[in-house]
Amino acid sequence: MRHNLSEINAVICDRRSIKPENFSSRKVHREIIEALLENARWAPTHGMTQPWFFKIFMGNGLKKLAEFHSEKYKEVTPQEKFNPVKYEKLRSRPLLSSAVIAICMRRQETEKIPEIEEIAAVACAVQNMHLTATAYGLACYWNTGGITYSDEMKQFLGLGEKDRCMGFFFLGYPADAWPQGQRKPIEYYTEWVGE
Ligand SMILES: Cc1cc2nc3c(=O)[nH]c(=O)nc-3n(C[C@H](O)[C@H](O)[C@H](O)COP(=O)(O)O)c2cc1C
User: Does an H or E element contain 6, and which?
Assistant: First the structure.
């Protein structure tokens, strides 16, 4: 055994999504966010493309994100599909957070590695961040609402045409007790062959 498995198991099982409505007013320091980003980059990456890119919104940046996302959502959504509750969440959630990290995938120039693998690598990087955040006792939430996948969002984030925005990672401290998780037992999603 090279590591303390009981600690690792505890962090993995304890990782929870906690929404900004349930964040306290305590601020997350930049040094802690940097520690999350340090661990993000140790995710597996086919061909060592390291396709992750994170844009971190803090302070005044949170206002810019909230304003852009909510107003653009309103602008591009047909009236019959417009949801005022969604609009309000896009407007308020960044302001309830210490930081919001835009989760992005930068497409390799040659496109040699299949896109699905680059997206998978970024998701692994997010999991590294989320587990690290759990160890710090931070509240985190990966959200893909609003116009996350739109060209307008790509432009706002300064991404290229073939890059992708994969969502937003909201960061704060929990206001309430740490929530309980639940999952189906492994029999539901495994099939063993050869034993
Ligand atoms: C790629 C991805 C996108 C997600 N987007 C949303 C979202 O838009 N809204 C939401 O309520 N939760 C979103 N989640 C979080 C899930 O709801 C959450 O992981 C799930 O409820 C399980 O809870 P847990 O993370 O506490 O175990 C997302 C999770 C992933 C992996």
Answer: helix 5-14
